[in-house]
Amino acid sequence: MQHPRCDQSPAWALLQAQYQSSGAAFDLRQAFAEEGSRFERWSFEAPELFVDLSKNRIDAPTLALLLQLARDCGLESQREALFKGEPINHTEGRAVLHTALRAPAGGAPYSDEVQGSLERMLAFAESVRADAGITDVVHIGIGGSDLGPAMVVQALQPYTDAHRRLHFVSNVDGHDLAPVLQGLDARRTLFVIASKTFTTQETLANAEAAKAWFLAQGGTDIARHFVATSSNTAAAQAFGIHTSFGFWDWVGGRYSLWSVIGLPIAIAIGAAAFRELLAGAHAMDRHFAETPQERNVPVLLGLLDLWYRNFHGFTSRSVAPYHQGLRRLPAYLQQLEMESNGKGVDREGQVLPYGTSPVVWGEAGTNGQHAYFQMLHQGTDVIPVEFIAVKTPQHGAHVQGELAERLRDQHQKLLANCLAQSQALMQGKTVEQALHEKAPTASAALGRLTVARHRSFPGNRPSTTIVLEQLTPRSLGALIALYEHRVFVSGALWGINSFDQWGVELGKALCSSLLPRLASGDTQGLDGSTAGLLTKLRSGG
Ligand code: F6P
């Protein structure tokens, strides 16, 4: 079914008018002064998390228009098509059914296959966990076959078994694999080769290198020490791997951590906790599928994304998880959002007259505060920030006594920092306020007004805060699914295919043709820069 693109909706022009009349001049400080219950009005509950949208440049008339836009674009029927397994990834002729991977038995398409595959993968994970002979698991994969598992294993560290180390290798750069192999014992190591296609250059190169290392170390039992997770199990077999966990083409790479690609997660946290991760994501699926749009958190976030990108013209969004375990979340979200929605044509191939995916970037707090937050506060661009706060820490059973007390106290510092940043971004500081402050480090030669200008902040900078009670498998599952659906919402309104990734193909093809040239030195037909650089980079060149 054809759905109108956002700019073809009557609400689009109304939103443009809304932006001109009040959106551009929207002031958060004024909004809080005028709307006493703004926090209550603009904060929402979703499974496992609480989302405060009140520090965003949004009001009731704007939201009403955005919801109208969503109706005009058939968001609900697009969502239905997703859950039903219609081939919405039309350029690859595929359904998009990551939601089926976390549905309970009988609750979604392909249920029998999904449950069978899950059981088999979890049974294998448990057998590895029970095998005292395996002390190290090296997971080799890239993109969606790396970022999700690596991020989740890191985030759920308190749930992992301290006796087994998980390593993730993704880059074709040997500086990734080499330090991981150092100190490993081939007889005690399991390699998981993860590649949906089993054709990805980086993964195959690392897998070959790992196999060669394994054999050189005297390793003999490849069948016991190498397994694959792939939708191309025939290629895995041809590679020499006999234990493979397969999955289906309707699982997109960046949506695959819920499938057998999650094997390292299951090895790290166990079958029961893996099921909790799935359950958290499923709860968010239900929220997305069933909650009225005006309280539907992924819908609200997706609408806000469109409002900021296409009307305010903000080109970037920063993610600041105030939890060290979530430090890889921004990298994970970069693939999820930018590979999904970094598109320039609509579903019919027409060039889009408006912007799509923002740049998504960030770093764990408080570290980011001491790096780029300067720019967020005083730079010339407005960059909405997304704070993620976790109320209760889990420092681990080994943390006891005075250390436990100290770390609990540090957690209060962490939370205070998180609150302070969103407060500062919104409040700002006027030149007038700065004039009344002492500036101990300023040179005496500078006028007071000059110093005050340097020390003032524009404020009115928007942010969202997501609060989790605790970072558990369940809450993390819900958080990830929230982001998946939010990306779906903005992509659906932009009228794009969020599920293909043709943009990575050209570079891959050119790489294949440049690789032999690096050996031969042949620069014929290359542009001057590429030819010059190739010559410079050749060994002996
Ligand atoms: O970067 C392109 C891409 O196809 C991603 O979408 C995917 O997650 C990644 O490469 C890895 O692909 P595969 O799992 O097939 O090795």
TrEMBL record:
Enzyme Commission designation: 5.3.1.9
Known catalytic reactions: alpha-D-glucose 6-phosphate = beta-D-fructose 6-phosphate
Catalytic residues of the enzyme: 339, 370, 508
The keyword Isomerase is annotated on this UniProt entry: yes
Keyword Signal on entry: no
SUPFAM superfamilies: SIS domain
Subcellular location: Cytoplasm
Pfam families for this protein: PGI (PF00342)
UniProt keyword annotations, A-Z: Cytoplasm, Gluconeogenesis, Glycolysis, Isomerase
Recorded metabolic or biological pathway in which this protein acts: Carbohydrate biosynthesis; gluconeogenesis; Carbohydrate degradation; glycolysis; D-glyceraldehyde 3-phosphate and glycerone phosphate from D-glucose: step 2/4
Function: Catalyzes the reversible isomerization of glucose-6-phosphate to fructose-6-phosphate.
Family stated for the protein in its record: Belongs to the GPI family.
This protein's name: Glucose-6-phosphate isomerase
